[in-house]
Amino acid sequence: QVQLVESGGGLVQPGGSLRLSCAASGISTSIDAMGWYRQAPGKEREFVARIISGGSTVYADSVKGRFTISRDNNKNTVYLEMNTLKPEDTSVYYCNVWADYRPYWGQGTQVAVSS
């Protein structure tokens, strides 16, 4: 049974920082990639960042230079360090894991950027 548990969301002021984490369990095969998506009210879910098993990373243009994705392979955990947060970053952030040629999703964690 695959489970992705996310944490680290919350309320932060503009310009502040948050660090999200996502711990994956129940995956018996190798994980090909881990990443983050986000979805704001009334909008489609959008790609944020991805890290491949080899360590290469990809970022959405909207977060490039502000967010950093990393991975602890021993713990099967992916992190998203978010700096210089903006109100438009407000969204529910979802962890995404690719394994066995299919995606798995976390439950989502709320990030709110407001004064």
Chart the SSEs and their pairings.
Elements: E1 3-7, E2 10-12, E3 18-25, E4 31-39, E5 46-52, E6 57-59, E7 67-72, E8 77-82, E9 91-99, E10 102-105, E11 109-113
Parallel strand pairs: 2-11
Antiparallel strand pairs: 1-3, 3-8, 4-5, 4-9, 5-6, 7-8, 9-10, 9-11
- List low-confidence stretches: none
Distance between the termini: 40 Å
Query: What amount of the residues lies in strands?
Result: over 45%
Largest β-sheet summary: 7 strands, mixed
Portion in helices: under 10%
Describe this structure in words.
- By secondary structure, the chain is mainly beta.
- 0% of the residues lie in helices and 57% in strands.
- It has no helices and eleven strands.
- Strand 5 and strand 6 (57-59) form a beta hairpin.
- The radius of gyration is 13 Å and the shape is globular.
- The mean pLDDT is 95.
